[in-house]
From TrEMBL:
It comes from the Bacteria. Belongs to the group II decarboxylase family. This is Amino acid decarboxylase. It comes from Streptomyces clavuligerus. GO terms for biological process: carboxylic acid metabolic process. The keyword Lyase applies. The keyword Nucleus does not apply.
Amino acid sequence: MRSPHPPLAGGPTGADALRPLLDTVLDALRGGAADRDGPFPAGGPEDVAAGVRQALGEVFPERGAGAAEALHRIVHAVARGSADPADPRCAAHLHTPPLALATAADLAASALNPSLDSWDQAPAASALEAAVTAVLAAVVYPGAPAPDLLVTTGGTESNQLALLLAREHHAHRPHRPGPAPLQVVCGAAAHHSVRRAAWLLGLPEPFAVPGTGGGLDPAALDGALTELPGPHLVVATAGTTDTGQVDPLADLADLCAHHRAQLHVDAAYGGGLIFSDRHRALVDGLDRADSVSLDLHKMGWQPVAAGLFAVADRERLAPLALTADYLNAPDDTGAGLPDLLGRSLRTTRRPDILKVAVTLAALGREGLARLVDDSVNTARSFADRVAAHPRMELWDRPALTTVLFRPIGADDGQIAAIRRTLLTEGRCVLGRARADGRLWLKATLLNPHTTPEDLDRLIDLVEGSTPR
Ligand SMILES: *Cc1c(COP(=O)(O)O)cnc(C)c1O
């Protein structure tokens, strides 16, 4: 006798099938976190991998172990061996602790499994995406007559779209004929995905404008746009990955207008500031860009992925239009079925908008702003503590939520070793960044529950690992 097939997540009985499995998952998550007992698994890559292999046992056995056993064993092992951004001592990257409510919503996305490449696979989810993206487009571009916004996997995909659409926009402008390829111009600290996107799209190597701290300096950009043959796409950054610096967007927008250059702002990190009355001014001019990248899996507290790509004018998205008879036949579209294929370069696509919609509805603009404001405050408070500490050096006041610091007297090799020691001991997770020719420890503070005591503890941990 063959055993029956495993139950499905959907249908009238799907929720009942899920409930005991979810209990198993939640128990394994709780147990794994308790066994790890800290922000990071101790022991280094060999120990972690050995633990995972042991829990896995036979990866693909002839006879399966069954749902409860496999779920518990593997989820527990991954939880125990995870870097946990919900622990205040896990502060290396733009690795946001996701909100429980967004994570719960993400479960519904998996259970319902709508795919946003055609309306007949996602009737409600596509309507939800249309409604929410329209509102978010207007938040990024208040007052623009026809803004639009796509959901992406993150800044990398958004930046790729930005370069692709800038290339196509240039190609389709009749008053700019000629074979000259689009020249991307950015700051030295622009995200590596900009360079990769240019490579992928067959564009010339982006020109990195020299400037202090890798930011886009308006005077230097003016010189570059005057000298370099166009057409140009300027890529500014609102929140660099290493230091959180924000380029002077309004000045750059003036320059782009003057030189007739297109402007994309990579606000993957800093875009979240637009939700905050207190900090919005720092990204003044964002809405003058032709396009904007913004990651809600950073300053939006969503589980990965929740990337957004906004354009000032929806006409810019026209090159993405595509017809595939099985997904959006012209007669179906003519009969009123929404045509979704031009909303992404992907085909099958998860409804990442579901968790975003739930978060916006649950927290409101005010609630989201409070998360942003408190994170900025936490970073400032951490910088104050570093600055006041007799044995610590602060690189600069944080623009967003990134603080670079180092023990006074330590050399670059020691800084790198401190980071690795804390990591392999599982005591804390800090990043590293090079600034002004020196290596620094980097704390990226995005945990709204972090307390002043947690910040003191971070500094104590670094001090305790510093060689005397
Ligand atoms: C994180 C980041 C990216 C890359 O985004 P992903 O979501 O990792 O693809 C691009 N640019 C900046 C400024 C970033 O901080």
